[in-house]
Amino acid sequence: MATISERVSILQSPLTEKYGKSMVSRTISHISFLMCKFIFSILRVSPIPAHIALIMDGNRRFAKRHVLLQDGMDPASGHRVGFKSLMSTIQYCFELGVKCVTVYAFSTDNFKRGPKEVELLMNLMKEKLDEVLTNENMLKKFNVKINFWGHLELIPEPVRLAAKKVMDLTMHNKGPVLSVCMAYSSTNEITHAIEASIRDTRGKGTQIGVCDLERNLFTAGCVDPDIIIRTSGETRLSNFLLWQSDFTHLQNPNALWPEFSVRHFVLSVMNYQLVHAYLQKKKGEIEKNK
Q1: Which residue out of 57, 71, 109, 246 is catalytically annotated?
Q2: Per-residue pLDDT, 7
Q3: Three-state secondary structure along 119-183?
Q4: Which residues, given as ranges, of the chain have pLDDT below 70?
Q5: Helix (H, G, I), strand (E, B) or coil at 30
Q6: What is the model's pLDDT at position 6?
Q7: What is the pTM of this model?
Q8: Residues of the chain above pLDDT 70, percent
C-alpha cells in the first residue's frame, strides 16, 4: 500500500506535468488557506484570547538537529528559520482576531552568550527590522501598531534606530498591537516601574500603590496575556511578564520554535478555550476578595 507521501506524489505528477510546479503550489496554498479559514471560524464560536505572548525557545537546538549549525557556519541559522515561524504565527493571531501579541525576542541574559553570536543576532534583528520598513504588506493588511519593550539603550545603535523607525511608522495605527521585548527582563521592568513611581510621587506625601506601578510598566495600557506559549517543552517563564501573568494559561508544546505550525497554534487556542471559564471564575473570586 502506498504511503501518504507516495499518494501525494502520484496525484501531483500528472498535474505537475500538465500545469507546472507553480500551479500545483498555488492550488495547495489556496486549499490550506481555505482550511485555516474554516478552522478559525469554528474557533471563533468560543472565547478568543485577547493577548498571546510567545517565548520562542529551541532555535539553536533546531539548527543542531538539522545540521544547520556547524563550526564556521552562521550561529543565527536556527533563528532565521524561527523568524519565518514567527511571521506565520503573528499572522495566524491577527487573522483569528487576537488583539495583542507579545514576543520575547532577546532577554538581558542573552547578552551573556558569546560575543560573536550576540553580534550575529543583533545583525539579524536589524535585517528583519529593515524588511519591515521596506515591505509593509502585513502592516497595511492589519494596520498593526508595533512596540519595543525593554532597556533599548543596551541594544546597538543601528538596531535601536531601526526599532524607533518602525515604532514611528506604526504609532498611529489602530489595528492589533505587536510588542517586541528586546533587552528585556521582568525584574528590570518592575524595578523601572518602582523607580518611576517614586519619582511621580516624590514630594506629594502619598504612598505608592499597585496602580502606580502598573501605570509605569512597559505593558501599561495593554491587557495581561491570556496565553503564554513557550516552545520546546520548557516550563520556565525565564523572567518574562512575571507581573502580568497571574491568570495566564501557560502552555509548553514540545515542538521547537521553528517547528511551531498552524496545528500547534490551533491546539493552543483550543486548550485555552477549555480552561477559559475556570480562569475567569478564579480571577473573579480573587478580585472579589481584595
Answers
A1: 57
A2: 36
A3: HHHHHHHHHHHHHHHHCCHHHHHHCCEEEEECCHHHCCHHHHHHHHHHHHHHCCCCCCEEEEEEE
A4: 1-25, 27-30, 68-75, 203, 205, 290
A5: helix
A6: 38
A7: 0.87
A8: 86
Closest C-alpha among 93, 167, 178, 110 to residue 144: 178
Per the rule left: phi > 0, alpha: psi between -120 and 50, beta: everything else, 20 is: left
- Residue pair 255/232 in contact (Cβ under 8 Å)? The answer is yes
**Residue 57 annotated as catalytic:** yes
Do 47 and 273 contact (CB within 8 A), yes or no? yes
The overall longest dimension of the chain from CA atoms, in Å, is: 81
* Strands 227-230 vs 51-55: parallel, antiparallel or unpaired: parallel
Place of cell 478580585: 287
Q: Which residues contact 152 (CB under 8 A, 6 or more apart)?
A: 160, 163, 182, 183
